[in-house]
Amino acid sequence: MQTQSFDYVVIGGGSAGCVVASRLSEDPKISVCLLEAGGPDSSALIQAPLGFAATAALGLHNWNYHTVPQPGLNGRRGFQPRGQVLGGSSSINAMVYTRGNRLDYDHWAALGNPGWGFDDVLPYFKRAENSECFGANAFHGSGGPLNVSYLPSPSLLNAAFLTACAEQGVPPTPDYNGASQFGCAPAQVTQKNGERCSAAKAYLTPHRARPNLTVITQARTHRLLLDGRRAVGAEFRHAGQTRQVKARREVILSAGAYGSPQLLMLSGIGPAAQLQQQGIPVVHDLPGVGQNLHDHVTTVLIYRTPRKDATFGLSLAGLVTIVKGIFEWRRQRTGVITSNVAESQAFLRTDPSEAAPDIQLALCTGIVDDHTRKNHLGHGYTLHVTLMRPQSRGTVTLHNASAQEAPLIDPQFLTDPRDMATLIKGTQIGFDIMQSPAFAPYRGPMLYPLERNNPVQIEQFLRDHSDTEYHPCGTCKMGPASDPLAVVDASLRVYGIQNLRVVDAAIMPQLVSGNTNAPTIMIGEKAADLIRDAAAPT
Question: Is 514 in contact with 98 (CB distance < 8 Å)?
Fold first, then answer.
């Protein structure tokens, strides 16, 4: 087929790629092509918020990646569901809107990345947001494309959780995305009128009629097109044919923490020894590509409950609740189908000396065992205990030279002893909260019983039951040229390659203290300005 040319080619229609494509195409004189490996985001399991609970278990709309065996998880292979659909992981996630802590971004800047401190990025968070929770104020925006709200029909269980947190010294906070992250609060979620508000729904759906914006789904990119050390386009597979698109100005790689380093390496950009091992000609030896992988590791404290009025469950009563909920959602976009399951959040310190919270708690109004892939009859609830600033570092490498093969993902979960020590403390605090008097009306036996003061048993439990909280980052690290693992500079330009940027969570030099969807959308917003500024006449 005839090769088409555009000003910009964006590879990956996820949380950042949707933002970049939308913002750049605001200029009618600029043409943009967005390539997405997955299909459209039209499924009811995407638009109905509770539908996400089925996508992991059924393997829908995602890459269904797995890690290599993890020594820190007793040799288990972790599950890594990443979005393979327009909107990327923002179309299959739990919709929690969390930015992280101010100190995260100030640390990015201190590592040699000017323009990425909290005061620098806050305007981009605000520009993206339409906050129904707070309106426009010092920390939140109004009128942005990404709608952020509270759940329209939260479970009764949330009140017990918030009271239990306070009983254990974790007070309510009016806004964990505001002046102070420490505390507990109902989840802020990316929903609008009882439907998911993904990056695709926010940034692409309203603008698909733009004549200068071309979105191609089911387009799996195989490699970047290079002219020497200059990016000039992409080669992809679509409708059974191999096609190419050319970029007159820039190629923007937004394929995620796994896809972006994989495509760089398949194109000859990465650690030379690894590329040569796979028979890939080396275009540019860039040692940091695929290095610095880290992710939030989480564990689950699961309780059964005799109550059927506040939780999801595999029972006749649970089935009736879901069926009634479907009809209510179809009529008025309220009810249990609007749940994101992780309905309340808490941020706490395992030690008073910590400058910022290092553990995130999420109360889930159902039994969440092995990413919902292990089913249990009856009703229950789950507390996710998440390590927010892991020290363990892993890698993404190539399985072979084929784009059809999943990369080798090795997060090295819990291999740094500091991670285990912190997660044990966080699990003990989470246990105390779940055993608090506020949960007495709901609490049944634990699915996997624990002794609060038995750290040896807790460590074994963590290695048997912990896994990803779905927040991989860092594999195309942003940093100064003096950093041996830096892949992009502070303008997200790939070192040694002209006209190529990486714009997604892969560029994070260090993981933020919270969910990564909102920060990745912020990265897309800031990148759009960086790209436009570079193209502006001097």
Answer: yes
